[in-house]
Amino acid sequence: MKKISNTLSSALQWAFAVLCFLGVLVYGFTFGSLLILLAGLIAMPIKPVRKFLREKLKVKTLVAVLLSIVLFVGGCMVMPQLETDVPIDETTVTTTEEEEPATTVAQTTEELTSEVATTEEPTTEPTTEPTTEPTTEPTTETATSSIVANKENLSSNKVSVADIPNFSGKAYIAVNGNKPYFTESEITSQAFETYTSLDSNGRCGVAMACCGAEIMPGPGEERGSISSIKPSGWVQAQYDCVSGKYLYNRCHLIGWQLSAENANRRNLITGTKYLNIEGMLPFENMVADYINETGNHVMYRITPIFKGNNLVASGVQMEAYSVEDGGDGICFNVYCYNVQPGVVINYATGSSYLESGSSETSTKKETTTKETTTKAPTTTNSGSHNVSASYILNTNTKKVHYPGCRSVKQMADKNKQEYNGSLDDILSRGYTTCGNCF
Amino acid sequence: MKLIFCIDDKNGLMFNGRRQSQDRVLRERILNLATNSRLWMSDYSSRQFTEGGNITIDNDYANKAEKDDYCFIEDGGYNFENCTEIVLYNWNRHYPSDIQFDFDLKANGYKRVSKTDFAGSSHKKITEEIYVRKDG
Q1: Is the pLDDT of residue A100 over 70?
Q2: Which of A373, A436, A374, A360 is nearest to A400 (CA)?
């Protein structure tokens, strides 16, 4: 009888331990899952563990079992908190702690990344001709036509580079007939924002929010500096064919005008000026103005799409859905190309070069064309998306410098002013660029 | 008839079957503009006009509106054949668009007679431009 009892007890303990180990596999290495892992280890009915508990920790079997249960329960209690969308009050804390462990979004992002990351070696893609080699199973094909009919989790909105047609001069294209993949359970009118922790390559994942006045910048609130962040693939370069010359912007996933997020490394990717201004900004403007006008909320999800282990995203998927009016005001699902016409980008590293055949004359002409056809956004205070660079102004000489310019070190403090915003804007205010750093 | 459009910096009108933007102050301005005439619009457009006004809701307004009537154009069809005046409201913003206002005003004999900036309720600056056909 005693033998049967012991066998049963061992079997239960093994089952408990295996359950705990599975928990870690499912939830990954979060604080809660580590507690559960510890519970499983303590519960293992093997001699080394028993001996360690008994001789090193002076813990009796019964106490060990109790300890194991307490750890398991504790782990389970912690786990759901990590998976819950961040409520508004906690948002600030979460978003300022850059290295916080991932939430549920992080797990789904890993799925997303792993799906997209089935490609071979990192590739160099001419920005005007993105590769069309299949990288993964098309994921959008499985999506339903209804906005909220898809009952899968966040991972169901996967879009791979293979699904996306070559860039053909349009900054964005519709995905799934412009119907976002939000599920009924995701749609809420309670404002929140969540960000995915960086993956092992230092890359951002899905950022999701219920945007509303609650999380948007307050009246008069000004942007903070984001120049301290170096997103994955940040290899800055200058080209005449790029307005403002600099190829890359620190591109917000959830724009500042929607989230008031500044230097949050989980919300900033390396994006071309073109992606920033022609791709993402128009959608951010539309959502922000809709919220400002109506006071409604908008479900908003931004997914950077990386091919393989590339450090620079091939593009960004943007989904939005206005809550209170059931999508009557805002409803879109688009893919924005992370390209810069005239420039070839090595997405694996972030390095770039001028497209072959582009002469200096032709690139200059293109710059002229862009400048004459594209008005710089005029909403600096309300968070224009192009306002993503930091400069140092000399208020005496009216020169604009980059923060690393040697002239800045020699500048008198009284003349020095930090400026975060559009170069075009500051030039229009009578400043000129420094001859050394520009 | 007189046609009213709201456009963005890229002459965009709509995206994904939805207006690019809306503004309460702009609506009031449009209602004032059409105080002494009929203001035609589609069912879709009328849903944002909750403030009243002399509004006639008819999706076939392009064929029914008379000479001095105003037509507020968002999603409906329109033609410039009987048009004598075009009022453009520019949001001074860049929004996404898949339908644009692609009518060449100058080439079709329209001349701008006024340009006015005003602040909206959620837009810092909205620009009103009124174009009149020279032979109108």
Answers
A1: no
A2: A436
The tens digit of pLDDT for each residue in A402-428 reads: 776 667 777 888 788 887 776 666 766
Give CATH for domain B2-133: 3.40.430.10
Whether B16 and A178 lie within 8 Å, measured CB to CB: yes
**Chain A residue whose CA is closest to B15:** A332
pLDDT at B41: 93
- How many whole angstroms separate alpha carbon A422 and alpha carbon A215? 23
Distance from CA of B65 to the nearest CA of A (A): 27
Please tell me the pTM assigned to this model.
Answer: 0.63
**ipTM of this complex > 0.90?**
yes
| Cβ contact A285–B94 (<8 Å) | yes
What is the rounded CA–CA span in Å between residue A267 and residue A251?
Answer: 8
Which tens digits make up the pLDDT trace of A137-169? 323 222 223 343 333 333 445 677 778 899 999
H or E segment to which residue A195 belongs: strand A192-195
Looking at per-residue confidence, does A433 or B103 come out higher?
B103
Q: Which residues of B touch A374 (CB under 8 A)?
A: 9
**Kind and range of the H or E run holding A209:** strand A207-211
Would you call A173 an interface residue with chain B, using a CB distance cutoff of 8 Å? no
Specify the amino acid at residue A189. Answer: S
**pLDDT (0 to 100) of residue A149:** 32
Distance CA B39, CA B23 (A): 17
Nearest-angstrom CA–CA distance, A344 and A194: 33
User: How does DSSP assign chain B, residue by residue?
Assistant: -EEEEEE-TT-EEEETTEES---HHHHHHHHHHTTTS-EEE-HHHHTT--S--SEEE-TTHHHH--TT-EEEESSS---STT--EEEEEE-SS----SEE----TTTTTEEEEEEEEE--SS-S-EEEEEEEETT-
SS3 category, A366: helix
Specify which residues A174 forms β-bridges with: A334
What's the confidence (pLDDT) of residue A175?
95
Distance CA(B67)–CA(B65), nearest Å, equals 7
Q: Is A377 on the interface with B (CB under 8 A)?
A: yes
Q: Is A28 helix (H, G, I), strand (E, B) or coil?
A: coil
Cα–Cα distance measured from residue B66 to residue B40, given in angstroms and rounded to the nearest whole number:
10
Interface A:B, Cβ pairs < 8 A: 57
Amino acid at A281: L
**Helix or strand holding residue A4 (H, E):** helix A2-27
